[in-house]
Amino acid sequence: MPNYFNDLRPDFAPREIDCGRIPAYQYRGTLRSELDAGTLTADEAVSLLEDMLIVREVEEMLVKLRSGAYTPIADFNYRGPTHVSIGQEGSAVGACSALHIDDNITSTHRGHGDSVAKGTVSIRMMSEEALRARVPQCSAKTREALLEAVLEDHVFRAIAELFGKEDGYCKGRGGGMHIADAGVGHLGANAIVGGGVPISTGAALTHRYLADGKVVCCFAGDGAYANGVVLESLNFACQAQFTNFYAKDNAFGLPIIYLIINNHYGMTGRADEEVDGVRYLARRAAGFSENNMHAEVVNGMDILAVREAVTRAAEICRKGEGPALLEIDTYRYYGHSLSDPRNEYRTKDEESAWKEVDPIETFRKQLAECGVLDDAGYEVVLQRVVDRNARAAIRAAASPDPVPEDVIKYMYVETSEDSVPEIHQKISLLGPLPEVKRKDGQLNYRDALKEALVEEMARDNRVIFYGEDVADYGGAFKLTKGLLESFGRQRVFNTPISEAAICGTAVGAAMSGLRPVVELMYMDFALMASDQISNQAAKWHYMTGAQVKVPLVIRASVGGGKGYGGQHSQTLESMFAHIPGLYVAYPSTPHDAKGMLKSAIRNDNPVMFVESQLLYTVMGPVPEEEYLIPLGQADVKRAGGDVTIVTWGPAVHDALKAAELLAAQGIESEVIDLRTLVPLDMETVLRSVRKTGRCVVASHCIHIGSFTAEIASTVQAEAFDYLDGPVMRVGAKNGIAPQSHILEAAFLPTPDDIVRAAKSIF
Amino acid sequence: MAQAIQMPKFGQATEEGTIVRWLKKVGDTVAKGDILFETETDKSVMEVESFHEGTLLKIIVPDGGTAPVNSTVAFLGQPGEAVPDVVAAPAAPKPAEAAPKTQAAPQATRTAAVPSAAPQAAVPAAPAVAAGPAKPFAISPRAKKRAQTAVIDPMRINGTGPDGRVVEKDVEAYLEQHNYSALRITPAAKVLAARESLDVLALDGSGDGGKILVADVELALAEKPKTMSKMRQVIAQRLTQSFTSVPHFFVTVAADLTDLLAFREQLKDRGEKYSVTDFVMEAVVLSLVEFPVVNSSTDGKAVWWHSRVHLGVAVALEQGLVVPVVRKADLLSMAELRDAAKGLVGKARDGKMAPDEMQGSTFTISNMGMMNVENFTAIINPGESAILAVSSTFETPVVRDGKIVPRHIMKFTLSSDHRIIDGATAAQFANSIKNKLEDMELWKRLT
Question: pTM, whole model, 2 decimals?
Fold first, then answer.
């Protein structure tokens, strides 16, 4: 049994807590010493310089474009953001040069450098075959010529993305703040400060689970390290259960390097002595792990120091001793963007002092001193960079824009995992699969969901399941009891109470190859994770121009009707239906619950899977043989010719009761269960309304802004001439769910409310 | 920026205009001064010139449409230029349209909306339904569609839905009640009836077994009530008001024009052309100066004597009646009076009169002399105290010095507002005209 029983005794003996020591600026190497030690060749050193120059040239181009001063395309109207990272090239190139091609990175809104550098250093490492695959049209004979073509193609694709062009890495959907390149493991820059940190943590979860030897390097600024989800992610990553006896043979720390790119300004907020309480953000590490996450502070203006530190951190991670945290002390020469004049919060002298230690200039001097590259050689490299950038920029400016008709193309992916690759069919079980008990061929809603989860986990080893209290305890509603015992803690584990990290890591895990299912104990808590659900899970397929999929299921349980009050009772599916990129499902019967959850897990889109605690004990027939219920297919739960009642979730049961009451008065209702709000099966609704001429839309959502209005609006627009009366809506009151059961009964809609609404249009 | 073309405000009191026809199509090039469209106000048809040049981008109020003055009726601009999303401003409801909407009782709506054998009777139905708060006729989209498919008039259906809304089952019940399934109609007849919004249940079929044919629909179409022209509506309103609120009485006098006609021939030989009407006008103007009470207005409490004679001359047009006004006729010589009247009448016949040229008359002459009329009476123009109806001149046997002789006799009848004009005054005034017409010395002086 993988279950573990705590046996913690009181121990109040006096003692001191040793927080250990965090090394800072300890690198003593030079280019000379690196060359002598063989840790760097002369050619590699020149490449590091060239890569920094490539990054700087791209960003200086953006700066010049804003004033028409970039002569190759002086007339081009650049419309995107200008969060340049000039001054930080040592961090970007230094860190990326210490990673493998297929190691992941995530970056930030100031991510041009990280994105360009991950590409250039990876390209330099690629085999000839891999290079040719990137430029299939290229007829270059030598590796050198081929490499040059691929580098230019890379710069072109990056610039095209900044320009919002179809040829950009993300087909112009992402732009500079969301650029991603799956081909070199780049999971995306992120325009939400801190938003990428749980995603990279989730990618590390994938690499830990798959034991594929990959490492994730998470770039995020000093500003992000004050953000809740970032601190949640560090705690999530450092959970003891990943490395101690809980993990048994699978003990392996998350292979992730958190790089705090401390440029000292979060937009304009000063990390030093203003918005943070510590001089070194590396101290944060001491709050999350006993080993301080191997934290160090590194001179970010010295590319060799960064490269050396990230190399060691990556080794730590590959040994399973991660996560690691490095604070990279660097500087941003420009303001937050070009509209920031900088003179309101820092001195010119400060800027000059940092420019004295410019990463490119200092490294160039070392190259000259070591006789690797003289001034003439440097001019050759620089000219090559400038010319390449100009060619790429001219091409990018002239390249086609996306066509307007495709504005919502890539919002959803049409695929689902209909067959599991053989390698993922291997399931190691610690015990027999948990069984659910049928009574006369019937299961309750809770067991139907559990059976779906069990079947899908037994079908595909990429399906993992985590959330609060879901493992040993079996979930707050005992829906997942037994899963840990069968599948083990690698695939079923408890999490800290960190909804944003739960959802955010699941996004990262899904983007990097797993098919996670996570649980939110109450749907209200989804609001704690709303950035990760709405800005991350929903948007990455689109923002990357369909480079990545996010096959993720977030199970959220609605507590309404149980007297749990305002923060545990909300029916919020309408909110998530308003977020493009998400699927939203809400089954009403055990049969639908099982078939829909199985489909949701196999679907390649992120699915907000809503469950109702009121329905967990509802019994219904559930076949033992395998079946799926496609997402986006409404179900006629009762046929009738006089009025159409459109509904979903627990309101389906209210509608069926209402239909009985109406039948007694001679009115035959057709009850349509939408089952999924997104995708929406409007055709079934319209077919019915065209028949009956009357429509009532009912749900447990509060009335204002409810998805019922969306249905009503579409019905009147699409079936106006068929309507024999106005479309009526029934929902909860426009209020907050109360604790008092008297008030809650008045708050929630009832079958009588539906009857009243229906009769008002006869 | 596209230039909005407005419905002009021609007269002080004009509130809306109907576009008779557009002379430019969408896409046509328009130069400054080009005529864009003709509009019919309550007084006349006006041509509207363009103040701008460009291309006619969009017509918002089409031929036959009515729009409030100063509302946008079209846009002018450069080809391809975006046009603001403007819909036609609602015109004041026309009586014939407004009537059904104000009906409370379904019985009453029937009269207004159904083609009737006696269209004259349909119009007065409107004021008859004033009782109760106005409630819009309500019908569900589904029921409306069903009625359209059946080609029936849903306004005749009793609604049993919420708030009396006509719902689908009401239409079905109505159809059954009227034995709709037994109705026989040719497909072409049904299509035509649908296009013309006729009610097939109100049609009589002349085909085999009472089958409704296209000819039957065309017959009904001819009887369909038509909205009167703006001008006709104004005439109706003003004359009804006058005839029902002003106590008219009539004095007829016969004038012997034998000498005048001979004198007129002499003048003609001299190259001076005057019509009988010109003499009548001059005689009237001279008499009005002598009888100021006839050149006055009253509201029933006060009387206004007008110091000047503004002479209205009723002109019959195809579309109705207009009354051009010769201003300050008392200050004009006879030749000037003739020329002024001739110019105005010509403009009126061409529909080119400005609204201000048809306002402010103090007395009106209605002349049917050329229409072979023995005698007739006219209705006083609102705001005036009398009107003179001039009939045709006939050679008539007359007793003169004990002998029957043929003379050219013309009758004319003065309609007077009895509130301010008594019989004696009317008789004196009428005879003053007669005497002047028969006084050759006078005409020799004046011509």
Answer: 0.76
Q: How far apart are CA A7 and CA A734, in angstroms?
A: 48
Q: pLDDT for B419-437, tens place per residue?
A: 999 999 999 999 999 999 9
Phi, psi of A684 (to 5 degrees): -65, -40
- Predicted ipTM > 0.85: no
Do B110 and B7 share a structural domain?
no
Q: A 443-482 residues with CB below 8 A of B?
A: none
- Say if residues A111 and A82 touch (Cβ distance below 8 Å): no
Tens of pLDDT, residues A428-475:
999 999 999 999 999 999 999 999 999 999 999 999 999 999 999 999
User: Under an 8 A CB cutoff, do B143 and A762 touch?
Assistant: no
Q: Residues of chain A with pLDDT > 90: what percent?
A: 97
Please indicate whether, in this complex, the C-beta atoms of A724 and B167 are within 8 angstroms of each other.
yes
Mean of pLDDT values over A595-602:
98
Asked whether residue B91 carries a pLDDT value surpassing 90, the answer given is no
The C-alpha torsion from A129 through A133 and A135 to A140, rounded to 10°, is 20
What's the domain count of chain B? 3
Is residue A230 very low, low, confident or very high in pLDDT (cuts 50, 70, 90)?
Answer: very high
Residue A223 domain boundaries: 31-406
What's the total number of domains in chain A? 3
Q: Which residue of B has its CA nearest to A717?
A: B141
**A284 inside domain:** yes
Cβ burial of A690 (10 Å; 0-12, 13-18, 19+) is middle
> Where on the phi/psi map is residue A20: left (φ > 0), alpha (ψ -120 to 50), or beta?
left
Residues 119-158 of B with CB under 8 A from A: 140-145
The pairing of strands B325-326 and B311-313 is antiparallel
Whether B162 has its CB under 8 Å from any CB of chain A: the answer is: yes
Specify if A416 maps to a domain. Answer: no
Q: Is residue B329 part of a domain?
A: yes
Dihedral sign for Cα atoms in the order A402, A405, A408, A413: negative
Q: Which of A586, A621, A656 is the last residue of a domain?
A: A621
Catalytic residues of B: 418
CA angle A216, A219, A221 (to 5 degrees): 155
Sequential DSSP letters for B243-293: HHHS-EEEEEEEEE-HHHHHHHHHHHHTT----HHHHHHHHHHHHHHH-GG
pLDDT band per the 50, 70, 90 thresholds, residue B47: confident
